[in-house]
């Protein structure tokens, strides 16, 4: 199922203001620690021609992201995700993999697929590796606070301190060296199914926030850190 996903680039004063408003009426994500939220670390993949990166530069309304994702630096839960975007609607295909499968994918190898399907992230990864030379390109990490509202399946996330690393060989053992983005390192995301309750839209009103198709992957693949 496709969900609406709107993104906003904002500075810390606006981010803090929006989060204070949202935290007053929405429930925090039950998986995050109080106050400090949680950390997301993702290895993003692209093909031999960097097609997914080019799609973001070109503003292609339909684009894909391939990634391996972990939370709070732990390899106890490793997710293999393919994110498909059509305009401002997104769909995620996700599977849980183990460390051996993760290592194989990071090395550019396909993994066993017990139930091949175009709805399976494993199948899509294997196809992309075989047909387009999909390989890991960059590690993207940031800190997230998330809030939810049941009606409309609303999820609002506040992402800060976006940083990147090219130490992909060390992803399995930790200790990667990260570079922090000095600007555009705060992103507010609003996600929902069919409708956004009016009062939430009013809480998010601001003249200084800029809606953007911001891609953290693109920001972290830029040649220069601003």
Write the layout of secondary structure elements.
Layout: E1 3-9, H1 12-25, E2 27-28, E3 38-46, H2 51-58, E4 62-71, E5 74-86, E6 89-97, H3 99-106, H4 121-132, E7 135-149, E8 154-165, E9 179-180, E10 187-192, H5 198-203, E11 210-212, H6 216-221
Antiparallel strand pairs: 1-6, 1-10, 1-11, 2-7, 3-4, 3-7, 4-5, 5-6, 7-8, 8-9, 8-10
How would you characterize the overall build of this protein?
By secondary structure, the chain is an alpha+beta fold. The chain has a single domain (3-221), classed as VTC, catalytic tunnel domain (mRNA Triphosphatase Cet1, Chain A). It has 6 helices and 11 strands.
Summarize the structure.
With 226 residues, the protein is an alpha+beta fold.
Strand line-up in the sheet with most strands: 1-6-5-4-3-7-8-10
| Uncertain spans | none
What structural class do helix, strand and pairing data support? alpha+beta
The number of distinct β-strands equals 11
CATH architecture label: Alpha-Beta Barrel
């Amino acid at each position: 199922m496709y969900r609406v996903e709107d993104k906003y680039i904002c500075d810390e004063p606006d981010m803090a203001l929006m989060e204070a408003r949202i935290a007053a009426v929405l429930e925090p994500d039950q998986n995050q620690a109080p106050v400090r939220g949680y950390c997301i670390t993702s290895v993003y993949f692209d093909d031999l021609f960097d097609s997914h990166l080019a799609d973001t530069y070109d503003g292609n309304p339909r684009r894909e992201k391939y990634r391996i994702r972990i939370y709070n630096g732990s390899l106890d839960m490793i997710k293999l995700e393919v994110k498909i975007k059509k305009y401002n609607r997104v769909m995620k295909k996700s599977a849980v993999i183990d460390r051996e499968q993760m290592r194989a994918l990071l090395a550019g190898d396909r993994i066993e697929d017990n139930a091949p399907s175009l709805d399976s992230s494993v199948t899509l990864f294997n196809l992309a590796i075989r047909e387009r030379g999909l390989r890991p390109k960059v590690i993207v990490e940031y800190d997230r606070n998330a809030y939810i509202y049941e009606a409309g399946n609303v999820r609002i996330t506040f992402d800060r301190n976006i940083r990147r690393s090219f130490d992909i060989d060390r992803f399995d053992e930790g200790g990667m060296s990260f570079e922090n983005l000095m600007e555009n390192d705060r992103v507010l995301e609003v996600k929902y199914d069919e409708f956004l309750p009016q009062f939430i839209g009013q809480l998010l009103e601001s003249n200084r926030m800029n809606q953007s198709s911001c891609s953290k992957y693109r920001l972290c693949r830029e040649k220069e850190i601003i």
